[in-house]
Amino acid sequence: MTPAEQSLKAAEICRLAPVVPVLIVEDLAQARPLAEALVAGGLPALEVTLRTPCALDAIRAMAEVPGGVVGAGTLLTPADVKAAKKAGAKFGVSPGSSPALIAACEDEGLPLLPGAVTATEIMALLERGYTVQKFFPAEQSGGAAFLKSIGSPIPQVRFCPTGGVSLKNAPDYLRMQNILCVGGSWVAPKEAMARGDWAEITRLAAEAAALPRG
Ligand code: 3PG
């Protein structure tokens, strides 16, 4: 998959809804009902972070939920990319980017949303052909004001900011031209997941899905 194809696919996934839930699944039994709850609320693109022992199995289980587009987050190495693809991930997300990780995603045909946080990192990815990037950690790195500033010299790169994004500050990002969507964990709170309160997660998803985009 070429970088241009990767970015095209990443943009398509980012446009599915204003918010991509960032999920930390501790218990495999939560995977399917969690995905069903989020999809029912209107958030089809789901990022399962590879941070828990059951993450790959969770991707496998969630990939079967109708209407969901399940990806793997926290990709750090080419081995992560291979494992994610094998588990059925339809896209990948990385906190930053490295040449080896990018090459692995291109070789495996796994559309990647690569992370960048400085003008130099954004330019390096753009040079390689990536026009859709994750801005992480968003709030800690200058937030919406940074992305507004970078949109002036580098308008051709569009972002999915993630990290510290909430229902409250998401509109600051979503109203800008160079933002495709935001990522965040607020739609799947740990406590609601632990008590199996899927109705609450659907409610949070629906609230997020209704956020206006600019
Ligand atoms: C992460 O990697 O944990 C994501 O960026 C989510 O961040 P958040 O929990 O602040 O939404």
CATH homologous group name = Aldolase class I
Proportion of β residues?
15-25%
Structural class: alpha/beta
Overall pLDDT metric: 97
Number of domains: 1
Give every kind of bound small molecule, once each.
3-phosphoglyceric acid
Task: Describe this structure in a few short sentences.
This protein has 10 helices and 9 strands. The protein is an alpha/beta fold. The longest helix has 14 residues, at 28-41.
What does this structure look like?
The protein has a six-stranded parallel β-sheet with strand order 5-4-3-2-1-9, sandwiched between helices. The protein has a three-stranded parallel β-sheet with strand order 6-7-8. By secondary structure, the protein is α/β, with parallel strands linked by helices. The protein has one domain (3-209): TIM Barrel. It has ten helices and nine strands. The chain has helices spanning 3-14, 28-41, 55-62, 78-87, 99-108, 119-128, 143-150, 170-174, 190-194, 198-209; strands at residues 19-23, 45-49, 69-73, 91-93, 112-113, 115-116, 132-135, 158-161, 182-184.
